[in-house]
Design brief:
Elements: E1 12-18, H1 23-26, H2 30-45, E2 52-56, H3 59-69, E3 75-79, H4 87-90, E4 93-96, E5 99-104, H5 107-110, H6 120-128, E6 131-138, E7 145-146, E8 151-155, H7 156-159, H8 170-181, E9 185-189, E10 207-210, E11 213-218, H9 227-238, E12 249-254, E13 275-276, E14 280-285, H10 291-299, E15 306-311, H11 313-317, E16 326-330
Parallel strand pairs: 1-2, 2-3, 5-6, 8-9, 11-12, 14-15
Antiparallel strand pairs: 1-16, 4-5, 7-8, 10-11, 13-14
Helix pairs in contact: 2-3
Length: 331
């Protein structure tokens, strides 16, 4: 049994991906969001060398997934139930192939508490043949990032938010993570991205990309609304050591810059929501000019994998991107 959550670059036996299934949640973006997921799945099953378990939630979604991906080798299309596709947050975290951990889920602090999301951990663990251990505190998988040696990245804005575990302080969170997933050291950042309904998930801000190496954004262009948060995160990370006592190396990745929705609100677009597969790293892009630069920067960090930029603009209208809709099963 693994004592710690495996690093995402460790070998996987499968990758779970959620397929947009509820038209009322996606509205005019449904068809494009499905096309973006299909492109992701093709990349995962091809250069990503993943066995993909694509989870659908309605008969209509199953038919649409079969039409887009039914002939793709290495892709299993699964009928399940969920409120929405964010399996990183609603699903379990695998410790090893035989054991997964599930937390209480409250719809990101009560914002989007949808039917059936609470049943996702049982569905995934059962299908994977893993024992499920339930923890009695609120947590989402995207709130944490792991180095495979017990070092955990997170943000105070999310993990200590009163809308999750009302009376938690840092020590409470650290003890809970030590007990639940073997965390040896928790590295705290402050803020996440502006208008991120997750209250600042770390997988939009900073990610482990290797032992002792963390990537985080650098502002791109004029008026990047998250510039201060990026610089604060980089400065804080540079002062940290991991659980083994090794000082972190911080690598800056170009952000998408200032992107707005149709209502002229800043959208929480991030190249940090990349997904590390067995043979590839899939990076979300948003039609932003920095997308190619972000891919090139990550290529320098993952010389054992092909780095692929794929569009994720429609997915972002639902609140997340590639890392948010996926969860890996370790080999």
């Amino acid at each position: 049994m693994n004592a710690f959550v495996p690093a995402e670059w460790s070998p996987h036996s499968a990758m779970w991906v959620g397929f947009p299934s509820h038209a009322e949640l996606w509205k005019d973006d449904l068809a494009e969001a499905r096309r973006e997921v299909a492109m992701l799945v093709h990349a995962l099953a091809g250069p990503g060398r993943e066995r993909v378990k694509l989870m659908t939630a309605t008969d209509e979604a199953m038919a649409a997934a079969l039409e887009l991906l039914g002939a793709t080798a290495g892709v299993e299309i699964i009928a399940g139930t969920f409120g929405d596709i964010w399996l990183r947050d609603t699903g379990p975290i695998f410790m090893d192939p035989d054991r997964a951990v599930a937390f209480r889920f409250n719809g990101w602090g009560g914002k989007y508490d949808l039917p059936e999301d609470h049943s996702v951990p049982d569905q995934i663990a059962t299908r994977a043949g893993a024992a499920l251990v339930r923890q009695d505190f609120v947590m989402e998988g995207g709130a944490l990032d792991h180095d495979g040696r017990g070092t955990v990245l997170t943000t105070r804005k999310c993990l200590l938010n009163a809308n999750r575990n009302r009376h938690w302080r840092e020590g409470d969170a650290e003890r809970a993570l030590e007990s639940a997933i073997g965390a040896r050291k928790v590295l705290w950042l402050n803020q996440g991205l502006i208008n991120d309904h997750t209250d600042g998930h770390v997988d939009n801000l900073a990610r482990f990309v290797g032992p002792g190496v963390v990537a985080c954004p650098v502002a791109f262009g004029l008026g990047d609304p998250n510039a201060a948060a990026y610089d604060a995160a980089a400065e804080t990370l540079a002062g940290y050591a991991d659980a083994d006592g090794n000082r972190l190396r911080v690598v800056r990745i170009p952000s998408p810059g200032r992107l707005m929705d149709d209502d002229h609100r800043v959208i929480p677009a991030s190249h940090m929501n990349f997904l590390i597969a067995n043979g590839a790293v899939i990076v979300p892009t948003y039609g932003d000019p920095a997308g190619d630069w972000a891919v090139q920067a990550l290529e320098a960090l993952f010389d054992d994998r092909v780095v692929i930029g794929l569009p994720s603009h429609a997915l972002l209208t639902g609140g997340g991107s590639f890392h948010c809709i996926s969860q890996q099963e370790p080999a």
